[in-house]
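Lab meeting, item 3. Inverse folding demo.
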């Protein structure tokens, strides 16, 4: 074993796929790239960190709702480019050729080009002030079964990513929670 620089330790604990978070505030839709999130309950409840410096932060605070959209690896460059600019300056949907679709339960738009989407409402904002951490609850979910590219993108730091690989099916071993199969 060798010592690992502590600032790189997070790279071994990436929380899941890089997602796009959409908001709508004062008649304007926005989208941001988000990799700091995790599922905290099966409902689903999702914890996510949205920096106070992000344009989406104020929209999420005011509206209390968003959509978490899961892009496929075919959108990798777009996902990175979305993260490198601010919705304060541009319309990201127009700039990156994304198609906003109406959501069922929230004002934030879905993104037609994404694999799956979860419409969410903020249910707990007590950790926003100290940590920029929002607790969201999914209120409606969507999947596009017709999408041929189903691999997702995983950030491991400093502009590097991993792509989903082989799927291991170990459902038969799930004896403690068979109802989850």
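The presenter then showed the designed sequence:
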């Amino acid at each position: 074993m060798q010592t690992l620089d502590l600032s790189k330790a997070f790279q071994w604990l990436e929380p899941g796929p890089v997602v796009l978070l959409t908001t709508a505030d004062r008649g304007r839709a926005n989208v941001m790239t988000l990799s700091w999130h995790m599922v905290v309950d099966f409902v689903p409840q999702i914890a996510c960190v949205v920096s106070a410096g992000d344009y989406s932060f104020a929209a999420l605070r005011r509206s209390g709702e968003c959509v978490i959209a899961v892009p496929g690896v075919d959108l990798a460059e777009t996902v990175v480019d979305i993260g490198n600019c601010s919705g304060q300056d541009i319309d990201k949907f127009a700039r990156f050729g994304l198609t906003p679709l109406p959501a069922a339960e929230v004002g934030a738009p879905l993104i037609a080009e994404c694999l799956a989407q979860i419409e969410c409402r903020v249910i707990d904002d007590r950790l926003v002030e100290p940590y920029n951490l929002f607790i969201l609850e999914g209120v409606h979910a969507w999947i596009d079964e017709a999408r041929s590219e189903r691999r997702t993108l995983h950030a491991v730091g400093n502009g590097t990513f991993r792509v989903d690989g082989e799927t291991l099916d170990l459902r038969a071993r799930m004896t403690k929670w068979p109802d989850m199969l």
